Automatic annotation (TrEMBL):
InterPro entries: Aminotrans_3, Aminotrans_3_PPA_site, PyrdxlP-dep_Trfase, PyrdxlP-dep_Trfase_major, PyrdxlP-dep_Trfase_small. The keyword Transferase applies. CDD domains: OAT_like. Its cofactor is pyridoxal 5'-phosphate. This is Aspartate aminotransferase family protein.
């Protein structure tokens, strides 16, 4: 009998025993194609000898040194590398152990920045409905996914939620894409004015929405307008690239495609590529210097900040992305996967939308394509799809929760950047097999 506490207590998971390249093997010897990098984590695939060696070397040299006393070579080098390629004025990197921690750090940094900048009244946070920013209480409060929040609502801090930029459902008939993007962004200005122009601390959003919507990028122009609104009202822009960052969308940082840069950026998943748990919060020089010139102390921290072994893994992962030109491969394979998905599902009666950027693509399942009516939640379409895909030997990331108020179902695809053209064919074939389970 197992003593592990699984997520799904009524259906404990199968035991994986090894993984290599794009495949997992379970204890019965069955192979699974990793079509989602777990949850957009394993961007280099599994068993990469270069990353393993970097970790082994670092463990042998300096496994851990508490940041209350020391910095380390891997932390310094990884910070330099990230800042070299980071957009805008991002200048400092705060290393944590995962995505929720990166978001928590971002929220606290935003609050402390305003206090030390002489605006302690700025305490309101605005985020978007249908977003996910992590499961710790601050990050969960920030996220706008009703199902994930529901039972914890009484212990969550108050956060305002505006609409996401969700063209497939929310763009009105006859409305241009540009007008829709501006209309969606306008909700931010309206909410700032409703709360009080000098009361808002930060706006938080995912450039490409992952877990809760299934790879939904914003319309071109949306984030430019969001950036302008934040600048006008002195609101910090926090972008959560925990899932969509680190090359996943075909750019090292997802916001590169939107032509803007945030005040604070959160990354995780692909940074350690699953080899080590690591996340990071990047902030601008202005934010950093304000605290530096004020209290000189960021009042936040965890034991494993800047963990040398995790940083060594992150450094090896980012170096591998550049040395092997993997982001170019993301773009090539993205086109192939998108084409194959359109061929396989373009006319499928229950696939309403095929979308995304890079190797971060999603299919939205609907009951009726013309009216875009979602499936009745009672059918548990996403869960049924996940089970069928697993039986077919495919790991993908189906979820309910796309639509406000009604559930809506999608599947997210985020295969390793090393996926081959043949494996893309295999992935789409297995998706087709799983789709036969949709009622
Ligand atoms: N932010 C986003 C956009 C995510 O997708 C996730 C996880 O899926 C998180 C934050 C939380 O990251 P973690 O699970 O590493 O705490």
């Amino acid at each position: 009998m197992s003593h592990v506490f699984p997520r799904q207590i009524t259906a404990p998971p199968v035991k994986a025993v090894s993984a290599k390249g794009c495949y997992f093997t379970d204890e019965a010897g069955k192979q699974y194609l990793d079509g989602s990098g777990g949850a957009a984590v394993s961007c280099l695939g599994h068993g990469d000898p270069e990353i393993i060696k970097a970790i082994q070397d670092q463990v042998a040299k300096l496994a851990f040194a508490h940041t209350g006393f020391f910095t380390s070579d891997p932390a310094e080098e990884l910070a330099d590398l990230l800042i070299k390629y980071a957009p805008g004025d991002l200048d400092r990197v705060y290393f944590v152990s995962g995505g929720s921690e990166a978001v928590e750090a971002a929220l606290k940094l935003a609050r402390q920045f305003h206090i030390e900048n002489g605006e302690p009244q700025r305490k309101h946070l605005i985020a978007r409905r249908q977003s996910y920013h992590g499961n710790t209480l601050g990050a969960l409060a920030t996220g706008g996914n009703a199902w994930r929040r529901a039972q914890f609502e009484p212990i969550l801090v108050d956060v305002s939620h505006i609409a996401p930029c969700y063209e497939y459902v929310d763009r009105a008939e006859g409305e241009s894409a540009e007008d829709y993007g501006l209309r969606a962004a306008q909700e931010l200005e309206d909410e700032i004015l409703r709360l009080g122009a000098d009361q808002v601390m930060a706006f938080v959003a995912e450039p490409v929405v992952g877990a809760t919507m299934g790879a939904v990028p914003a319309i071109t122009g949306y984030y430019k307008r969001i950036r302008e609104i934040c600048d006008t009202y002195g609101v910090l822009l926090i972008l959560d690239e925990v899932m969509c960052g680190m090359g996943r969308t075909g750019h090292l940082f997802a916001c590169d495609a939107d032509g803007i840069s945030p005040d604070i950026l959160c990354i995780a998943k692909g940074l350690g590529a699953g080899y080590q748990p690591i996340g990071a919060m990047l902030c601008t020089k202005q934010v950093y210097d304000t605290i530096g010139a004020g209290s000189g102390f960021f009042q936040h921290g965890h034991t494993y900040l800047g963990h040398p072994t995790a940083c060594a893994a992150g450094l090896a992962v980012v170096n591998a992305m550049f040395d092997r030109d993997l982001i170019a491969n993301v773009n090539t394979r993205s086109e192939q996967l998108m084409t194959a998905l359109r061929e396989a599902f373009g006319q499928h009666p229950h696939v309403g939308d095929i979308r995304g950027r890079g190797l971060f693509l999603g299919l939205e399942f609907v009951e009726d394509r013309d009216s875009k009516t979602p499936f009745d939640p009672i059918l548990k379409t996403a869960a049924t799809f996940k089970k069928a895909a697993f039986e077919a030997g495919l790991i993908c990331y189906p979820m309910s929760g796309t639509r406000d108020g009604q559930l809506g179902d999608h599947v997210l695809l985020a295969p390793p950047f090393i996926i081959t053209e043949d494996q893309i064919g295999e992935l789409v074939g297995k998706l087709q097999a799983a789709a036969t389970a949709i009622p």
